[in-house]
Amino acid sequence: MAYDINGINSMQQEILHEIALSKIEGVGGVVFKHLLNAFGSAEEVLKASSAKILKVPNVGRSIVEGLKRTDETLREAEEVLKDCEKFGIRIVSFKNTDYPPRLRNLFDAPAILYFKGKGNLDYSRTLAIVGTREATEYGKKSTEEIVSQLEQYNVQIVSGLAYGIDVAAHKSALKHGLSTVGVLANSLDDVYPKSHQKVAREMEETGLLISEQPLYTRTMPQFFVARNRIIAGLADAVIVVESGKKGGSMVTAEYANNYNREVFAIPGGIFQKHSEGPNFLISNNKAQIFTNVEDFVSWMKWDEDLNSISAKNQKTEIDLSHFSLEESAVLSKLIQNGDMLIDEISWQTGISLNKLASILLNLEFQDLVKQSPGKKFGIK
Questions:
Q1: In this model, does residue 309 exceed pLDDT 80?
Q2: pLDDT tens by residue, 210-254
Q3: Where residue 69 sits, what CATH number does that domain have?
Q4: Which range marks the domain in which residue 340 is found?
Q5: Does residue 105 lie within any of the structural domains?
Q6: Do both 283 and 256 map to the same domain?
Q7: Cis before residue 110, ω within 30 degrees of 0?
Q8: pTM above 0.85, yes or no
Q9: Are 316 and 221 contained in the same domain?
Q10: Own/partner pairs, 347-355, CB within 8 angstroms, 24+ separation
Q11: 329: which residues sit within 8 A by CB, 6+ positions away?
């Protein structure tokens, strides 16, 4: 490798190589992880031969061609690294311990994230509020009312800093003293749209701006869809306020469902174009109907004291001898691990999903198991 990186310490060298790898066209989060699993580090990937690279799953010729520009890409990555330090932007690789835990287990999680702001993601309650750029007064008022009533629960509000519902959610969070996170489709050297720069600066004081794009990356249309998966992944629940049947908010809802997040939608008039999306989600069982904050909070169990729940669960004693082997296996895992996704239970017990669903339903009927927000199951 001709490019000289001797002036950079070992920790910076590691992230430098990771930035360079992430800048290669076609290397998204999934491919990035495949490459690191195959070669051990980004540096080894950049050194590898084309023949070895092509043996890695999901890697095609275009990525191999991009890797031939390694020296140029490393120079660009060094500029990103130095300017991030200058501008107070944190760089977090999925290998780091401070990578967002809500994203870590997602199969398509970003390989690298860029953070700007004084806030953090260590909130026990997070909510994404999304909607159309052409928000109506009904939509903006609904957003303000939801956020204002959630103030007492210290909920972190996540959205995309776009026109309409997104910026209304951010502004409402700031107004009510809540931390708010803006996930950008563009890199953090610029705020888009420019008219939201003032809001963005205010958000940085108690919250964060986040992007997966390295500094000085030219914004591409596909980045907006990719941004929506991060919004969904960072949230415990997503509320779609207003949207057409197609659009970014509907994409976010789809990602949220795939990630086993709770999805809610605010219903609207059947002749209102910005109610088509929420009404569609509700009628097709892709979202629960949102009618008031009280019911939403109750469903999310945000109104319960977590310590009392923990104490209650610690006292739970179940005589497993009264159950079948498979029921005992399920109950043992839930007692041991707490709330679990059905896929996790299936994998750890070896019980097929179809059979497991029937077992869990039977245990629910016996008032032993409960289904929690996020489509998780736990001991009641």
A1: no
A2: 999 999 888 888 999 999 999 999 999 999 999 999 999 999 999
A3: 1.10.150.20
A4: 306-379
A5: no
A6: yes
A7: no
A8: no
A9: no
A10: 351/326, 355/326
A11: 349, 351
Residues 233 and 316 in one domain: no
Are 161 and 207 found together in one domain? Answer: yes
DSSP 121: S
- Cα dihedral 256, 192, 14, 226, rounded to 10, equals 30
* Residue 93, helix vs strand vs coil: strand
CB contact set of 165 (below 8 Å; sequence gap of 6+): 129, 130, 131, 132, 133, 135, 139, 140, 143, 159, 241, 242, 249
- Residue 367 backbone zone (phi > 0: left; psi -120 to 50: alpha; other: beta): left
Phi and psi at 182, nearest 5°, equal -105, 120
263 in a domain, yes or no?
yes
Task: List Cα–Cα distances, 77 to 74, 214, 339, in angstroms.
Answer: 5, 8, 41
The single-letter code of the amino acid at 337 is N
pLDDT digit string (tens) for 261-271? 999 999 998 88
In single-letter form, the type of residue at position 50 comes to S
DSSP 252-263: HHHHHHHTT-EE
Examine residue 350 and state whether it is found in any structural domain, yes or no.
yes
Give me the number of domains the chain comprises: 3
With tokens 């088509």, the residue in question is 276
**Orientation angle between helical segments 137-150 and 165-175, nearest 10 degrees:** 30
Token pair listed for 267: 């219903």
Domain co-membership, 196 together with 250: yes
